[in-house]
Amino acid sequence: GWIGLGFSDTNSMLYSDMVVGWVYDASMTAAIYDMYVGDKRGLPSVDSSLGGNDDVQLISGTQTTLSDGEVRTTLKWRRKLITGDTYDMDIMDRDIYLLYALGSADGRSGAYFSEHYEKGIVRMNLKTGTVNTTIEEWIEDPRTSLRSAHGSLMVVGWILFMTIGRFIASYGRKIPYWWHFHVGFQVAAMVSISIS
Hints:
Layout: E1 2-8, E2 16-23, E3 30-37, E4 45-46, E5 57-65, E6 71-78, E7 96-102, E8 118-124, E9 131-132, H1 142-171, H2 178-195
Antiparallel strand pairs: 1-2, 1-7, 2-3, 3-4, 5-6, 7-8, 8-9
Helix pairs in contact: 1-2
């Protein structure tokens, strides 16, 4: 699987500097990418594709299977504290948010990888090593829940209400007040679609 480590001024993945890597299961070779999350959907992009630099240098990558079947992936890498790259966060003597995420499958070439199955956040000073013990929550982009609501309402409106309304108009004419049921489902569909 893949490992992601992010550096941010806020407890959000959006606008964070990230390092994402993995060890390929088949070849046991490591891949690592210097990335930035500037996409409103929360998708990281390789810095060099945005006009930045690849400032992360892979030192080594290993993957071992423990006796309990758990797979442990270790990536060692280095990067300057201050890179001068617009898409990298300067590591200075101050608290920053350190975000981490884990994915279940190895990435593919070009820095494509699956969604994370685990994530977390800690606030710390990387120069001194001190950790802020305040429990932090990872803030998701509020648009994510709006997109889910939009999709759900569209499915309910088009697939459920419209289909039932059409079915009643086609096959339910022997039901008393079929016209009222038909119109009711069509109106419910339009309300659901309009709200979405």
